[in-house]
Amino acid sequence: MKKTVALSISSVLALSLILSACGSSKDSTTDTNASTASNEPAKKEVSFSIGYATGDPATKQAMADAVAAFTKANPNIKINDLSEGGSMAYLDWLKTKEAVGEFPDLVEMRDTQLFAEAGKIAEAPQAWLDLLADAPTFNDKHYTAPIVGTFPQGIIYSKKAYENAGVTAEPKTYDEFLAIQEKLKASGITPLTFGGKDIFHWGFWINKFFMDDMFADDPNWNSKRTKGEVSFTDAAPLQAMTDFTDLFTKGYIEKGWASTADNQTASMLVTGKAAQLFSGPWMFAQITQADPSFDYGWYPVPDRKGRIVVNGANSLQGWAISTAANQDADKQAAITEFVKFFFSKEQYTKFLQAVNGIPTTKETITYEASPQMARVLEVMNDPNTIKTLMINSFWGEDQMPTQWRNWFYKLAQEWLTKGSFSSDYMKKADAEWDANVKANAAAK
């Protein structure tokens, strides 16, 4: 028996995602671009480079599989995959590649405004945009083809650990969430694992509290900070970072967070070394791969007002073509063929299922979803869910100075290592923001 559930994400993506609750599907790779006629002339050989973030193993593998499937179907097109692992922030990696003359021809772009203003990426070809339900613009221009819809973060938890601690329901308020942490701690298990070795992982919890206390109520907070109208020493940002700090100082976060990599957190969870992980649905595949029998759930953490605030608004992130590659007709054509292949129904379905992704195409995508992913989509469909963005994902006047993000993440590590937090650190955050704004203005 099969049951199909249709879920609308219109407020986020203006499209539908249909989920099959049970049963299975079997995909096969179709060489969509291969010649069907033996007498066709040989296609011109073309090569281009590609770069994408590799912090999540499931997404990294899904990207590599897409590249492999495309080159098998298009033997005349060679793709040089420049993507690398490691703990270096993706933005820093891209800057390094640009500095040594190896900026990818096709690039997963996250700091779109930065590279668009620097002239490093070109407007997205119309053939890309024709595939998409909604591609956001910067200065009335399209630069990216969103790879997936914006992912929300939430608590991935061990049902066994919750049962052992006497936790019987998801929290309805932030105080109830803290009460759960106390119960877990009292049961003898570390409540939360945290991939503090990887700089990007810091953005999950820090932004959870920034979104709760700042952006849910004021999406223009960043531009006001740039104008000097608000400060990190204001009550809302101070509350945000106080709550963040309490997770560590009250013993809810594992003590070895500084040496734990993001890709180790799934293992920490399934082996019972920690009861929970705060992350997104891309982790579901890692958890299942680590232990197919592991029983777990997912839920969003409510804020202090009892609201559900998630990272879920549309963003500028996605595939982008470099300015240099766009000026090469052969490269542009080959890259466009790859993008069309990537978003083709068969290939895109495989990718989405591998990463538990939310589609961005005009064409409806159907794939088998886990109960945890169904819960994610339930939250995203709830009209009461407040969807906003992380501090670094806004653009235009609301863009954060790009240098500030990782600097602040390191500042947070500093005060946690010292075991204290005060408004003095937030004064430093203001000063660094202003200095970065000034430096960026002078560089234009």
From TrEMBL:
Q: Which PANTHER family match?
A: ARABINOSE-BINDING PROTEIN-RELATED, DIACETYLCHITOBIOSE BINDING PROTEIN DASA
Check the record and name the InterPro entries matching this protein.
Bact_solute-bd_prot1, SBP
Which residues constitute the signal peptide according to the record?
A: 1-21
What's the superkingdom here? Bacteria
Is the keyword Flavoprotein assigned to this protein? Answer: no
TM spans, by residue? none
Q: Which UniProt keywords apply?
A: Signal
Q: List the SUPFAM superfamilies hit by this protein, alphabetically.
A: Periplasmic binding protein-like II
What protein does this entry describe?
Raffinose/stachyose/melibiose transport system substrate-binding protein
Answer whether the UniProt record assigns the keyword Signal to this protein.
Answer: yes
